[in-house]
Amino acid sequence: MVTTQDLYQVGQMPPVGQVPKQMHASVIRPDRFGDPIKAFQTEVVDVPELKADEVLVYVMAAGVNYNNVWAALGTPLDVVKVHEKEGDPSGFHIGGSDLSGVVFAKGSEVTNVKIGDHVVGHCGYWDSDDPWIKDGGDQMVAPSAKIWGYETNYGSFAQFAKIQGHQLLPKPERLTWEEAAAYMLVGATAERMLFGWAPHTVRENDVVLIWGGSGGLGSMAIQLAKDAGAIPIAVVSSESKYEWCTTLGAKGCINRKDFDHWGVMPHWTDTEAYGKWAAGARSFGKAIWDIVGERRNPRIVFEHPGEDTVPTSIFVCDNGGMVVICAGTTGYNAVADLRYLWMRQKRFQGSHFANDAQATSLNDKIAAGRIDPSMGDVFSFDEVGKAHQLMHENKHSEGNMVILVGAPKRGLKDLP
Ligand code: NAP
Fold this sequence. Notes:
Layout: E1 22-28, H1 36-39, E2 40-46, E3 54-63, H2 67-73, H3 79-85, E4 99-106, E5 118-121, E6 124-125, H4 131-134, E7 146-147, E8 160-164, E9 168-170, H5 177-180, H6 184-195, E10 207-210, H7 216-227, E11 231-236, H8 242-248, E12 252-255, H9 271-292, E13 300-303, H10 310-316, E14 322-325, H11 338-343, E15 347-350, H12 356-367, E16 375-379, H13 384-392, E17 400-404
Parallel strand pairs: 10-11, 10-13, 11-12, 13-14, 14-15, 16-17
Antiparallel strand pairs: 1-2, 3-4, 3-8, 3-17, 4-5, 5-9, 6-7
Helix pairs in contact: 6-7, 6-12, 9-10
NADP nicotinamide-adenine-dinucleotide phosphate binds next to α6, α7 and β11.
């Protein structure tokens, strides 16, 4: 029998440090894999136990990211099977890879936070004893690296989240709980993409082409490039998104619907079809020059749509420049004309989330007010599925969507 002390209603905060037995969580189960609107269901589950390096955070707000669209669909990874392989018998997935909240409990090895601290969490999860990391290797390249709240269970779509201590950073005081949950996953990913791959780090006056400029990643990339003194150019699918991107710092925007050469490019031996594709790619390149005001190609291309756009990204990238990619939202078969890659000595670089230092760098820029969290629509806890469905259908509004969990209303920067 569950007593009132064992379970609190969503939005009703227990005394700081008092952990109830159970919690409300938005749960995905394999028999519901499919459209996010149905896959996520609110259930009551046990509050998880902690390992020595883990922290239990009372979640005030949780950010919505594309990874839990994939989790809901059950593809390309069955995340519940991933948890099972790690010895987790729960049979469910609680997603959510961005949070703001309050520290309620911690394992014996955690020294960087104390009970009651107001924190945000980044989603880089790894084994601190991983030999790769002990040898000084980049944490996100380590064999043990995972995305917390996607490849791990007990993310932020619940009253309590289980997270490693090193993932926690101070919540910027200037932000509300919902703003603080909006930016970290996409922001730190963009930070690594734009500044983590020397010598191709964004420099003053570089032209930077940013796909999906009004989306989560794109909104952060525009601001980070602008903050470094570069010239961001955003690609979007509607002129209604131009104002959002230019307000964030884009010099101009290109409407991808004005072109039709997307998708896997034709074979080079099919002269007619290839010529048509090349004409489309060239006119897209000219649209970039028109915005820059001179015939200058992007030194950095910020990629994530993948199959639909990679051929064009590699084509328009400047000689000696870099296409940096962190996803293949439209598909994984990225075909490119290799002549442009080797003759013009371009780099095609994969990138995945961020290490502790990159997440801290991003958080510092946000705390200092140099970068806005780009918060989009805010949803209530029972709308986790709805928010992910909108994202799945690319019908969400600009910026990063957020779910209010423990925060009883919008606009609070401190405890209610
Ligand atoms: P998002 O907020 O949905 O933004 C993606 C944008 O891509 C959309 O706003 C859309 O803008 C654009 N887009 C959609 N279809 C397109 C197409 N066919 N061609 C060109 N652009 C298209 O999502 P996000 O948070 O930015 O994430 C984007 C992808 O990156 C997802 O697959 C996500 O899983 C991945 N991701 C990976 C990492 C990592 O660490 N590896 C981190 C964050 C995100 P328009 O319709 O206006 O063009």
